[in-house]
Amino acid sequence: MKQQKMYAFLAAVLLSVGVMISVAHAQQDSGVPETRQMNSADFSDAQLKQFAEASQEIATVSQDYTEQLDTAEDEAAQQAVYTEANEKMVEVVEDSGLDVDTFNTIGQAIQQDPELMSRVQEMAES
């Protein structure tokens, strides 16, 4: 069970940056600045805990929508599912108390900082 939970968490972390790419593209198109680079010292424990919790919920949402994508009849239906999934994931992030930019920045930092990844994994397990 623990290994399965960790897999879901890691998948969510990797997905977090990928799924939010469309949000980043929308921000670029609207003139909103892109996510900035930060290091682990820039994040509070509260933010990391929020990220861990949101990532776990995003993993569940992702799994649900992946199943819907698999059964979508055509490209238009797939796009509708993708859009709905993205909106749901943004909602999860915002409900966690983080904004999408901060969530994405933490996700990127985790991918580049094994120590930060361990810290967030421990928070996810507790």
Word description of this protein:
It comes from Vreelandella rituensis. By secondary structure, the chain is mainly α. It has one domain (2-125). Helix content is 80%, strand content 0%. Helix 1 crosses helix 3. The chain starts with a helix and ends with a helix.
- Beta content: under 5%
Which sequence of SSEs, written as H and E, runs from N to C?
HHHHHH
Name the average pLDDT.
76
Q: Count helical runs.
A: 6
Query: Which regions have little confidence, pLDDT < 50, spanning 5+ residues?
Result: 21-25, 32-36
- Largest beta sheet, briefly? none
Quick one: overall form? elongated
Number of strands: 0
Helix proportion = over 70%
Write the layout of secondary structure elements.
Layout (H helix, E strand, L loop, with lengths): L1 H18 L1 H10 L14 H27 L3 H21 L4 H13 L1 H12 L1
InterPro entries: DUF4168 (IPR025433)
Protein name: DUF4168 domain-containing protein
Organism: Vreelandella rituensis
Provide tags for this entry:
126 residues, mainly alpha, DUF4168 domain-containing protein, signal, DUF4168
What is the structure about, briefly put?
The chain has 126 residues and is mainly alpha-helical. The protein has one domain (2-125). It contains 6 helices and no strands.
